[in-house]
Amino acid sequence: MTLFLILVIVAIVLGLIGAVAEGLFYLLLIGIVVFIGALVYLVLHIRRSGRHHRTLH
To answer: CB of 26 within 8 A of CB of 39?
Structure first.
């Protein structure tokens, strides 16, 4: 989950810089790609962890 949160934060920062700074539109696109990658990671992580029933100690 930590990796997901870090990827989302990076995507937000890149998106903001890309949207605000003139001539850095490519950073906005990179931020969108990173955010989509974070969502894919989250879905894969939930699927994998959903198959195994973990017990709490």
So the answer is: no
